[in-house]
Design a protein that fits this description.
The complex is a heterodimer of chains A (113) and B (111). Chain A has 113 residues and is mainly beta. Helices cover 0% and strands 56% of the residues of chain A. Helices cover 0% and strands 52% of the residues of chain B. In chain B, the strands form two sheets. In chain B, strands 2, 4, 5, 6, 9, 10 and 11 form a seven-stranded mixed β-sheet that branches. Chain B is globular, with a radius of gyration of 13 Å. The chains are: A mainly beta (113), B mainly beta (111).
Chain lengths: 113, 111
C-alpha cells in the first residue's frame, strides 16, 4: 500500500503563479522526501525534510511538515514552464527497512506559459 | 560521470519469454532498488539490495528474480513474462544517505 498520497492528482496553473501540492502519510516517519519526474524520465530528488523540522527551503521550493496531521506540502513559487512535471512524496517509517522508501501516486503539475 | 544507467530503454516481448533488464551504477552505492511504475499505482518496489549478494523482496516481487554478484550491477529478470508485467521499470541506488538516484527507466511491453 502507498504510504504517501498526494493531493491534488493534477494541477494546472499559469506561469508565475505558485503551485502547492500536499502529501498525507499513514505511519510515523523519520523523514519525508519530494521527487520530481519529467515526462519519460526517472525521478529526481528535490528536497528532504526530517521529522523534527517544520519547514525547509531550497531555492523556489518550500516544504512544510506537520507530523501531528501526518501531512506535508510542497510549494513552488513563481512557477516556470520548466516546472511542468509530476511530483512525488516518499517516506520511510521507523518500522520499515532502513533504506526503503514508499512513494505516493504523484501530483501532475502543468505550468502554462 | 555516467551515474546510473538502464538497458534496454525500450523492450517488446511476448508472453512466456524470459526478459532481463539491466541496471548499472558507477558510484559504488551499496543499496539498489527496482521499481515498477503503472498508471494509478505510482511507484511500487519490486526488489532491493543492501550489498552484493544481499537481496530482498519488496511490495510486488512475484514473477521477478534479481541477482547482485557485483556492487555496480543489479539485473532484474522476468522469468516468464505476462501481460500484467507491461510497465515502466526504474532502477535506483543510494549510499548511506536517504536520497535515491534513479535511472532513466525501461519501458517494457509484453504482447
Amino acid at each position: 500500500s502507498q504510504q504517501g498520497e498526494e493531493d491534488p492528482q493534477a494541477l494546472s496553473i499559469q506561469e508565475g503563479e505558485n503551485a502547492t501540492m500536499n502529501c498525507s502519510y499513514k505511519t510515523s516517519i523519520n523523514n519525508l522526501q519530494w521527487y520530481r519526474q519529467n515526462s519519460g524520465r526517472g525521478l529526481v530528488h528535490l528536497i528532504l525534510i526530517r521529522s523534527n523540522e517544520r519547514e525547509k527551503h531550497s531555492g523556489r521550493l518550500r516544504v512544510t511538515l506537520d507530523t501531528s496531521k501526518k501531512s506535508s506540502s510542497l510549494l513552488i513559487t513563481a512557477s516556470r514552464a520548466a516546472d511542468t512535471a509530476s511530483y512525488f512524496c516518499a517516506s520511510r517509517g521507523p518500522g520499515a527497512g532502513s533504506y526503503q522508501l514508499t512513494f505516493g501516486k504523484g501530483t501532475k503539475l502543468s505550468v502554462i506559459p | 560521470d555516467a551515474g546510473i544507467t538502464q538497458s534496454p530503454r525500450y523492450k517488446i516481448t511476448e508472453t512466456g519469454r524470459q526478459v532481463t533488464l539491466m541496471c548499472h551504477q558507477t558510484w559504488s552505492h551499496s543499496y539498489m532498488f527496482w521499481y515498477r511504475q503503472d498508471l494509478g499505482h505510482g511507484l511500487r518496489l519490486i526488489y532491493y539490495s543492501a550489498a552484493a549478494d544481499i537481496t530482498d523482496k519488496g511490495e510486488v516481487p512475484d514473477g521477478y528474480v534479481v541477482s547482485r554478484s557485483k556492487t555496480e550491477n543489479f539485473p532484474l529478470t522476468l522469468e516468464s513474462a505476462t501481460r500484467s508485467q507491461t510497465s515502466v521499470y526504474f532502477c535506483a541506488s543510494r549510499d548511506d544517505r536517504p536520497t535515491q538516484y534513479f535511472g532513466p527507466g525501461t519501458r517494457l511491453t509484453v504482447l
